[in-house]
UniProtKB/TrEMBL annotation, chain A:
Pfam annotation, one family: E1_dh
Listed name of the protein: Dehydrogenase E1 component domain-containing protein
GO biological process: pyruvate decarboxylation to acetyl-CoA
Keyword Transcription regulation among UniProt keywords: no
Superkingdom field: Bacteria
Catalytic activity: N(6)-[(R)-lipoyl]-L-lysyl-[protein] + pyruvate + H(+) = N(6)-[(R)-S(8)-acetyldihydrolipoyl]-L-lysyl-[protein] + CO2
Organism expressing this protein natively: Georhizobium profundi
UniProt keyword terms in alphabetical order: Oxidoreductase, Thiamine pyrophosphate
UniProtKB/TrEMBL annotation, chain B:
Keyword entries, A-Z: Oxidoreductase, Thiamine pyrophosphate
Pfam families: Transket_pyr, Transketolase_C
InterPro entries named among the record's database cross-references: THDP-binding, Transketo_C/PFOR_II, Transketolase-like_Pyr-bd, Transketolase_C
Domain Transketolase-like pyrimidine-binding residues, every copy: 7-182
PANTHER family documented for this protein: PYRUVATE DEHYDROGENASE E1 COMPONENT BETA SUBUNIT, PYRUVATE DEHYDROGENASE E1 COMPONENT SUBUNIT BETA
GO-annotated molecular function: oxidoreductase activity
Organism of provenance: Georhizobium profundi
Protein name: Alpha-ketoacid dehydrogenase subunit beta
Cofactor(s) listed in the protein's UniProt record: thiamine diphosphate
Keyword Oxidoreductase among UniProt keywords: yes
Amino acid sequence: MNDEIRQRRWTFLKQMMLIRRFEEAVATAGAEKAFPGHYHLYIGQEATGVGAMAALGPSDKIATTHRNHGHVLARGADPEACLAEIMGRANGINRGRGGTIHLCDPELGFLQTSGVVGSVVGLAAGGGYACKLKGDGSLTAAFFGDGALEEGIAFECLNIAALWGLPVIFICENNSADALGMAKGGYPTLVHAANDLRSIPGSLGIEAIRVDGTEVEEVHRVVAHAAAHCRAGKGPLFIETVTRRWAGSAPLWPELATGITDIGMATGRTKIDDGPHSYWYRHNDPVLKLARQILQDDHSARMQIELLDEQTQAHMRAVVERVHQSPYPELATATDFVFAQGAA
Amino acid sequence: MAETSISTYRSAIIDALAEEMRNDAGVFLMGEDIGKAGGVFKQTEGLFIEFGAERVIDTPISEPGAFGMAVGAAMTGMRPVFEVMFGDFMTLIMDQLVNQAAKVAYMSNGQFTVPLVVRTTMGTGSSLGPQHSQSLYAWACHVPGLKVAVPSTPADAKGLYKSAIRDANPVLIFEDRMLYGLKGPVAVGETSLVPLGQAVVARGGRDLTVVAVGRMVQHALKAAERLSEDGIEIEVVDPRTLLPLDVETIACSVRRTNRALVVDGGAQQYGAGAEIAQSINEAAFDWLDAPVMRLCAENIPVPISRTLEPLVQPDESRIVAKVKELLVGHRWPDREDDSP
């Protein structure tokens, strides 16, 4: 293994840990009723967001769905601004107007994060059309869940993207089952007649790849392949990343079924019991998985991994504290930006 | 005096699109059959020849997908003009319009804009039946973040399109199909711009203000001529845009005439007519000599039959009758002695 791959693994682990601790902080704040409303966690899917974002260029556009926290953080957004947005604060990434399902930063290339699951596919295809018109080699990546394929707009946009050869990477994070659902055999899709989701873009002639969405290196590799395909003017590509959703969507599953992550389960400090989630801890948790891979390559990395985790947790504790103390938006700003001003 | 030429409503819109497309490479058209075919109502005729398939884009029959793409492209720096062939098919794009386009500027604290135009047709008179004849602009007006224009003349059609394409927000423009052949003077170039949110007094008068929407303006102007023969002079005000609504111009007129009738081609229930009427009540109540009245489309689907269809929307005769009724019929009890 060369140093470049080693270095990249550490970068991936750092980002995935940040997302994990961030989401645990969201779930904790949610359980404490520190903010009203719903939220959808990315725990279990970190490897997809991190691996994919690393394969995209700075001028590429991204459209993502309601389970977006991980995507926005993986692209480099400030966790404090993100948490403040989720908690409706004035220093939020959108000044407390969008909230959890609309975290969005145009500086990072985000077009939109949408709460309507299929819509993002339409917006992404439009972004892809604009990228093609601009002709600057940029592309648009659409992140959506398997549920989006139940809506007609996804099929329509796959069709149009194929017809017009648009530079769009359709990244379907198939998270159709959480821990419990998977145990009941609800995988790979709960409510779709097409059990192999690749058959949908496949019927339109779009190259469709399935990848283990808990393997960050694998995701990175196929998204890099897709990006090169788009930039070469070869049209869209579809990637199904098979992920596991640890937590559900609050308020349906308000608690973290698998609890707060113990990195000791990767470093050997903590024994994994034969409880209901043992298989998850051993095989599916992308953070523990990557930590184990790093350890396998370098046994001396144990301290470094635990230190990184401690630092991440301390960082998030400080973020949470500051956000709790940060102000809500001024009432007078409620009517700002109903309409954009002047020329766009 | 600006240079003008005589144009139809249809070609005034085509001119507006062509001028803005020449002016800004980011402007492009999307819709069904708008390319080589030139539109089912010839409403894009000639544009494909000048601008080609890259900018006059025929979409599949995929309204949600294609309109979602228009929104995405607008957020990525383009200025799409998206055509919904029949206003009735707005039902298909509602998520993208209501939950995406209208909300983006607000949700992102102004970081994003959606500079796009939705072009669509509406109205009765073509015997196209219940799913192809509705006038659904009030739906769009209910959503904060959208702008809505309803041009009634060739000059306004051109001027409003040019302004809408240059606007940073999503703007919907409803064209009444029965107006396509209407001829009138149209200004050239920059002098043709009509600002969004500015009503116009289409005809001066002293006895009553008729606020009419879209094609109803044309009916009201004809009604005004007939009423004039009986010595009744009505003022006709055309809001031109329903959102933003220029309440002040409308209220100024009512403060002079002391009576108001709102004529709206959309269904009466919860419609634009109600919004305009209540705006008059709030802005000119002390000047009113009679309740503000509405004359709107019936609350029924638009039937296809030649005998039934004309009953749905207000026309010249019904405006004349309603104005007369309003001038003699509805007075406040303590104003019994006032002569109309």
